């Protein structure tokens, strides 16, 4: 019996799809953790965990005091 994906993975996968489709482009600023939590109706810790996953996937980069941005694509 399949289990539902955890909310943080759903958020990370949604943002990943937007980045890969070009809806979110390199250099675009992502919403704050608070804004993501409100948009997805989850706790801020869940939104933060989703952003951590995107950072681990090297899709986003954080700039202390400025925000989180879509990372430049590395040539493949």
From TrEMBL:
What keywords would UniProt list here?
Answer: DNA-binding, Transcription, Transcription regulation
Q: Name one GO molecular function term.
A: DNA binding
Q: Where is the HTH gntR-type domain?
A: 5-73
- Please give the superkingdom of this protein's source: Bacteria
One Pfam family of this chain: GntR
Report the InterPro entries cross-referenced here.
Answer: Tscrpt_reg_HTH_GntR (IPR000524), WH-like_DNA-bd_sf (IPR036388), WH_DNA-bd_sf (IPR036390)
User: Does the keyword DNA-binding feature in the UniProt annotation?
Assistant: yes
* CDD domains found in the cross-reference section: WHTH_GntR (cd07377)
The answer to keyword DNA-binding applying to this record is: yes
This chain belongs to the protein called Regulatory protein, gntR family
Upper classification of the organism: Bacteria, Bacillati, Actinomycetota, Actinomycetes, Micromonosporales
């Amino acid at each position: 019996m399949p289990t539902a994906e955890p909310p943080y993975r759903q958020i990370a996968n949604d943002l990943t799809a937007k980045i890969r489709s070009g809806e979110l482009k390199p250099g675009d600023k992502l919403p704050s953790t608070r804004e993501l939590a409100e948009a997805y109706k989850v706790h801020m810790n869940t939104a933060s965990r989703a952003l951590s996953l995107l950072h681990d996937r090297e899709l986003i980069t954080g700039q202390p005091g400025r925000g989180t941005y879509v990372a430049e694509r590395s040539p493949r």
